[in-house]
Amino acid sequence: MPYSKEIEQVIEIGRRLYAKGFIAGVDGNLSIRPNSREILITATGVSKGFLEPEDLVVVDYAGKTVSGDRKPSSEMKMHLAVYNGRDNIHACCHAHPPYATAFSVVEKILPPNILPEVILTLGQIPLVEYAPPGTAAVPRALERFLKEHDGFILTNHGVLTLGRNLFEAFYRMETVEHYAKIIYIAEQSGKLNFLDLDEVRRLEKLRETLGTQTK
Ligand SMILES: [Zn+2]
Prior knowledge:
The structure is a single chain. The chain is an alpha+beta fold. The protein has one domain: 3-Layer(aba) Sandwich (L-fuculose-1-phosphate Aldolase). It has seven helices and eight strands. The longest helix is centred in the last third of the chain and has 24 residues, at 166-189. Bound molecules: zinc ion. The site of zinc ion (ZN) has 6 residues, from loops.
């Protein structure tokens, strides 16, 4: 199969997602868009912690298998919608990290005005309405947030992050989960200190100049 460098990256990031407890069993899926014709995506029903090159499938933009013997991820429609909707995105990371997924289960938005570094590196993390995993309803629910955001909490499901490469998508997954964990702990410890609106706007403007925003 072609794309040996990309395959290596998917295997490495799958290993990290599993080692960090962001996925259990055969959860999660990863993809890379190496060019404007094809997408490399993990197969369904395999642990992303122990991927082998044959656990990856190359599909075209319509989701048709180009090479690989396994069935592509059941969430392929979500990945295809991202690549069809965002020219600047070349990798997607989907996992079920426990703190962020807990927020998804109670339908609670992560506050957009607490940690400056989260605003600078990721911006707001919207809560996308529930859609049954694997169905066309997932990309439909995602649609209205897709252009403006690089990380999403999927109600009663998990997290999706996007990047210019798979490492960036993975770092964003780490940021979402780390932030959710901090908010959870902070809420047990006392009253959250919210940044004022002017400061949030200043940080958002700064983000535009830092190159951390995927345009
Ligand atoms: Zn999932």
